[in-house]
Amino acid sequence: MKLFKMTMALALMLSLSLAGCKPKDSEIKAKIESKLSAEAPNVMVSVTEGVATLTGEVKDEATKTMIETDAKTAGATSVVNNTMVTPAFTPPVIVSDDPLSNSVRDATKDYPGVNAVVSDGVIMLTGTIEKANLPKLMMTLNGLGAKRIDNKLETK
Amino acid sequence: MSTLTSKYQPIVDAATAAGITDLQAREQDGVMYIDGTAPSGAVKDQLWAKYGAIDPNFTGGDLIMNIKTNVDATVTKVRVTTDSSNLNIRKGPGTDQEIVGKAAHDEVITLVSNSNEQWWLVRTADGEEGYAYAAYLTPEG
After folding, report:
1. What pLDDT score was predicted for residue A154?
2. B84 interfaces chain A, CB cutoff of 8 Å
3. Between B26, B61, B118, which is nearest A149 by CB?
4. Strand partners, B33
5. pLDDT band of A10, cuts 50, 70, 90
6. In 3D, which of A95, A142, A94, A133 has the Cα closest to residue B65?
7. What is the arithmetic mean of pLDDT over A41-55?
8. Distance of residue B8 Cα from the nearest chain A Cα, in angstroms
9. Do A107 and B29 touch (CB under 8 A)?
10. pTM of the model
């Protein structure tokens, strides 16, 4: 009986000490955050009773999978991955006025009714054009690296 | 989603569905920029039709849609698709360059290089070589 009591006490102590070893939610959260800071800075982490929830934006599917693994290695018992993949975009390329003016001149040469002026990256179109030719001209002009196209052409 | 993004969302959706590669759609200073490469000229036309449905005369001034067409590296022949006139072939890439030859409307000529997007280097059956405006050339085959 004495032995049984001692065993019980030992088991209790052991379980208490094990519970003490279990990492706190806040520690897991901090660990995950430090792992994600470089690859997925826009991801929010919350941890409740060992379960990590990830929300926010990641740049691709590979990152989404990777952060889930990171959260598990950081001590989360399971991971709810609610992140969304939103690709990183590069800013539009705007060509400077001199080369832009040259390519606009080339593009409008065959449309004598069209008057095109380039200023500060903006192509300003006035005059007239046949309706059927308008999409063709616009397709070309849209590929030249303008910041904006102000089209005031009248179609005939 | 901003007003501008939702206005042109049908184009982005169609581009995604049609397999446009390197697709980018973003807004900057009140202008939406959609870039990408279409697998064929037909797909590019399809996206322009979408644009035309949203803004029939392209007067909005709030979209730059730069869709390139992927020209297969195996393409060596291009058709002259002017309205009816001959196509000038020039010494260099630009309308200020000397005209060194002409290709007839609907004639099929050799594509030498399309490394310059607007001006392709071509060669006629007579052996005249020079730059022609890419908007009037359609890849064959």
Report:
1. 97
2. no
3. B61
4. B26, B64
5. low
6. A142
7. 94
8. 15
9. no
10. 0.72
DSSP β-bridge partners for residue A122: A119, A148
**What is the Cα–Cα distance from A147 to A92, expressed in whole angstroms?**
8
- Among A142, A143, A147, the residue with its CB nearest the CB of B117 is A143
Q: Give the pLDDT score at B123.
A: 96
Lowest mean pLDDT among A14-23, A127-136, B21-30: A14-23
Q: From CA B33, how far away is CA A146, in angstroms rounded?
A: 10
Owner of token pair 């195996």:
B74
Looking at every residue in chain A, the average pLDDT score rounds to 89
- Which of chain B's residues have a Cβ under 8 Å away from the Cβ of A87? 24
Q: Which residues contact A101 (CB under 8 A, 6 or more apart)?
A: A118
For residue A4, the model assigns a pLDDT of 72
Report the C-alpha gap between A9 and B75 in whole angstroms: 83
ipTM beyond cut 0.85: yes
Count other Cβ atoms within 10 Å, centred on residue A29.
20
